[in-house]
Design a protein that fits this description.
This protein is α+β, with helices and mostly antiparallel strands. The chain has 2 domains: about 160 residues, Ribosomal Protein S5, domain 2; about 170 residues, Alpha-Beta Plaits. It has 11 helices and 10 strands. Strand 5 and strand 6 form a beta hairpin. The longest helix is centred in the middle third of the chain and has 24 residues. It is globular, with a radius of gyration of 20 Å. The protein starts with a strand and ends with a helix.
């Protein structure tokens, strides 16, 4: 019998890019947050061998380049299982949109495979396999709010915020993540061009400084002493009860966290900067590019405000939808 699961999306609450590592990846710091938008994935294991990917969306690869394909290969081996794995992906999320659609699909395939075979892998083993397949896959084995470090594959659960209304705008622009990283490296090199003899040293220093800055901001934000004083890091009064947690989310974004990719993506795609500004003008208390884009999001105080903003964006030709963030408990309950 086929197993049907939801494959949720994510946004990045801040994303800082560090220096390029020896393995070719960059060190990153980000806060991941799962949201209620999702794809639908159906999986079954039948007689035979191999992996078959099905999708009505022509942009979804059907071969071994698909993250679901690579995940299923590794998972079948780890589970010591036999059979042909058929994975049908119903795409509702944009492809290459910065919402982690392909990564979420792969983790959904892993969890659906466990259900189909009635076998389970240890949690640490699943995280290891997920990290091998892609950088932000492990997030989807955690859900809710999580700190991402390393190249994004190291994830640590953070205290969840209450569900917050948000708007996701998905302009029909394809942004290449490898190119965005390359453009970031070029930007850092250019910033050091005035002193060629120290260029590499300065580039490494500037990118490392940004990583350290983000780490300090997050550490200070998480520090329990901020609650004892009645004020959070940014000076916002901290309320009691549910309101206190909502204030802490507002406090996090008021610390000045940002997405470094905006510095290289917006100059190449000015329309994306315009969409971000439109989201902010619609009443969002925080707006940002998600990942390397091209999706953008805004956080709102009420569902009504988010729905109004999404409708306004849609009338200007920008696809947008009102949704909400998902706590860890909501993520797994709805999965």
């Amino acid at each position: 019998m086929p197993v049907t699961v939801r494959s949720y999306a994510k946004i990045n609450l801040g994303l800082y890019i560090g220096p390029r590592r020896a393995d070719g990846f960059h060190d990153l710091r980000t806060v991941y947050q799962t949201i209620a938008l999702h794809d639908v994935l159906r999986l079954e294991v039948v007689r035979g061998a191999g992996i078959e990917i099905r999708s009505k969306d022509p942009r979804v690869p059907r071969d071994a380049t698909n993250t679901c394909y690579r995940m299923a290969e590794r998972a079948m081996e780890a589970l010591k299982a036999r059979g042909k794995v058929i994975i049908e992906i119903e795409k509702r999320l944009p492809v290459r949109g910065g919402l982690g659609g392909a990564s979420g699909n792969a983790v959904a395939a892993l969890l659906a495979l466990e259900l189909a075979l009635k076998k389970r892998l240890p949690g640490a083993e699943k995280l290891r396999i997920a990290a091998e397949v892609g950088s932000d896959l492990p997030l989807f084995l955690i859900g809710g709010t999580a700190l991402g470090v390393g190249r994004g594959e190291e994830v640590y659960p953070l205290p969840d915020f209450p569900s917050v209304p948000c708007v996701i705008a998905t302009p029909e622009i394809g942004v290449s993540t490898p190119k965005a990283f390359s453009d970031w490296d070029a930007l850092m090199a250019a910033s050091s061009a005035e002193n060629p003899s120290q260029a590499n040293k300065l580039t490494l220093s500037s990118t490392s400084d940004r990583i350290n800055t983000f780490s300090r901001v997050i550490s200070a934000w998480l520090n329990g002493s901020q609650l004892k004083t009645g004020k959070a890091v940014s000076g916002v009064p901290v309320r009691n009860g549910r309101g206190r947690a909502e204030t802490l989310l507002l406090d996090l974004v008021r610390t000045g966290i940002e997405n470094d990719f905006e510095q290289v993506v917006f100059p190449q795609y000015p329309a994306l900067r315009d969409v971000k500004n439109a989201i902010k003008k619609s009443g969002a208390y925080y707006a940002s590019l998600s990942g390397s884009g091209s999706s953008l999001y805004g956080l709102f105080s009420t569902r009504a405000a988010a729905e109004k903003a999404a409708a306004k964006l849609s009338t200007t030709g920008v696809p947008a939808v009102a949704t909400s963030t998902l706590t860890r408990q909501q993520y797994w309950k709805r999965f």
